[in-house]
């Protein structure tokens, strides 16, 4: 197995809507190429290829097994329902394929550990599909938070990820089906919020997580909307985070990080308003003027350009790591599995808190 002159050869198993976006990203990334697509039927795979204008050179398979067993495939992207992630990620890793998997990574932490163990024992790279982490805006903010320390110690984080789902979505989408994606909105949109909290705390685990009593479920018991508080420090809170995720309200992707010395605000942290540029607001040293009739400073808008879409940058980073493994015998980068592991831990904690009647879950 090895890359072609065109780059790392990706196979996609499953024709979910997100596969269209990532398939485009694979072809946009300079170091990769879409080599194969597989579905549960050959007809469905052909329809996907036609609808997305895939090159005639792309292999079309009528099963997932054919993709993961193809010796020419270097990496497999898995956009399947969460309930079958562990089966197909383990199969891919066992066939020495590097694994790029959609979030949520698994139904729970125990399943994720099976995936990570398969990747580690087979020497392949693992990464989940949290695209926003690869945007240059995210890297710019990371520098301000941790390298330049312009915000000081982080004290408060507020994060939302919501969308107003259609009646058809709420009836038929896999994300509201207990047998397919039983984590519901917590695993889907909530993954971003929980990942953002961890990111803003440099992946330090919290002291406790508490689901708030605003949980809404459908008739199958799948969570459609919920909020949670996340606390660092006990008994006094060093940092508090509030997250809200919902399929029942207008689209929002807000992230606010407030430290001792400044505040960052984003309104589009998951998917930027525009593909080639993104911005955020930064306020430092804010105080009220005399009589509290205004502020002494206005937020500064920082604009960050991007040469490639963030999903293509994600694929490019993944391909870079694969080249390091195959060409230089580097070990797989443990950073990405650890990010997924900690995010999954927070998803599990919220679900446990909800099950306990919104009681705190301690780490």
From TrEMBL:
Signal peptide per UniProt: none
Coiled-coil residue windows: none
Source domain of life: Eukaryota
GO molecular function: nucleotide binding
Stored Pfam families: GFO_IDH_MocA
Residue ranges constituting the Gfo/Idh/MocA-like oxidoreductase N-terminal domain according to the UniProt record: 8-127
Entry-linked InterPro entries: Gfo/Idh/MocA-like_OxRdtase_N, NAD(P)-bd_dom_sf
PANTHER family, per database record: NAD(P)-BINDING ROSSMANN-FOLD SUPERFAMILY PROTEIN, PTHR46368
The protein's name in its UniProt record: Gfo/Idh/MocA-like oxidoreductase N-terminal domain-containing protein
